[in-house]
Amino acid sequence: MRRFLLTLLIMIMIPYVSTLAWTGQLEGVRKRGEKVTIVERENKNIPIAVEEYLVYVLAAQIPAVFEPETLKAQAILARTYIYGMMEYRAEIYEEELDMDALSYEQMKALWGETDFASMFSKLQNAVRETEGLYILYDGSIIEPLFCYASAGKTRSFGESFPYLKQVESPGDLHAENYRSLPVFETKEFVQKINEIPGAVAVSEMELDSGGGIQIVERDGAGYVKQVQIGQKTYTGEEVQYALGLTSACYSFERLDGKIRVICKGIGHGYGFAQFGANEMAKAGRTYEELLKYYFQNVEIVGS
Fold this sequence. Notes:
2 domains, 11 helices, single chain, 3-stranded mixed beta sheet, alpha+beta
């Protein structure tokens, strides 16, 4: 009986057309003037309204347990990205977007049957309550960058993106796994670095001598811009990806003949910091205040 009632509740809370369209069992219904994402399911192209598609995108982008205002802000960022990719077209194919979106079954697996209905409803409300809203800077759609948690400050992206300025985000320091301390055997470290495309091979002897690694440059938020390893200088991100680090804000130290990395933050550190924003939302900040804190001098407009 409990399982039957849960199933019934889910059926009530999820729009019939969008759910069936997502699973490929029924074609979506297009409203006049509606922006549409074309998804391919079972070798069939199915139009789904962007507003419906966004729920599945949010499920992949942000924890559904976050505050409603944080979810609303993320919904606007996701919509802004899609609108920017559409370039004022009425429709776009899913593969053009290159963004993750969880299916109905994936969401059930993520949240479990007990919490599925409430989590889906939270995301659905975030989309509905911000319907059609997106972000402009000086009349143009912004690059709506976001990360899970900065290293305590977000990063400036330079003059080409004047709305992406460094701001304090202290709430990020409380995120789970904000600080990680991976340790590498020298042999393993060397192997990973030497696999970077265009690498100049570094030897274990170079690193075991106590030298061979030097941070050349950091940005104002503490993220590594350039690091020299052996005879080659790499970008902070090249080494981050090679070592599988959570961000490019890191430093190195020797530990019992091994190399330990002290890494802070989760993600690239640009734009909207989800965890820090969520801490602000807990203190009463609205989605508009959150977005205008992390993106300077922007306006939120409706389609």
